[in-house]
Amino acid sequence: MKLVCNKYLLLFLAVIQFITYVQNVKAQSQIQQFDDRVMINLAENRTPAQTEVALFLSRNYMYGDIGVPAALLVGGIIRNDRQMRENSLYVASSTAITYGLTLLIKHLVKRPRPFVQNINIIPVYRAGSTSFPSGHSSTTFSTATALSSAYPKWYVIAPAFLWAGATSYSRMYLGVHYPSDVAAGIALGTGTALLLQPLKR
Length: 201
What we know:
PAP2/HPO; PAP2/HPO_sf; cell membrane; transmembrane helix; mainly alpha
């Protein structure tokens, strides 16, 4: 158990180091230039149908983040299944801790939203708060990773990561997060879920 914890602690520290690296080189770096190019390209190629789907995903991601552990808890109570109840705690803890870390990093980094930093990036709507990392990406990937770790079946893994990936993409498509914001969110959420794996049954 101690070896497993140490392994995931190192992974988690690597994620934090990656986040720090991205921020240290963001100013007029190649990453920033790449971010801007991607965002402008996405904005220029939007369609009404794609925009509707992206808005739906972005507005409703919390139903997955909250609904998955809630469903596991209810199922565990109804079936008197201790393993399911403990997996509910694992998924919920992963997502909640990821959310807290995301808020902390946002507060420390204070990266402006893409449309604030570059007037050539036109968003579908103007989100508030700060940009780095993407909270939608971090929590959905934390939920998907924890759920897939607890139930490693293809019919759990595939839809979980399809939902998390589509939600993360929607944040770039809508013009409210850079690709590097999304990548950092994915790394943070995945790393947190893996670090907390000893909680699962």
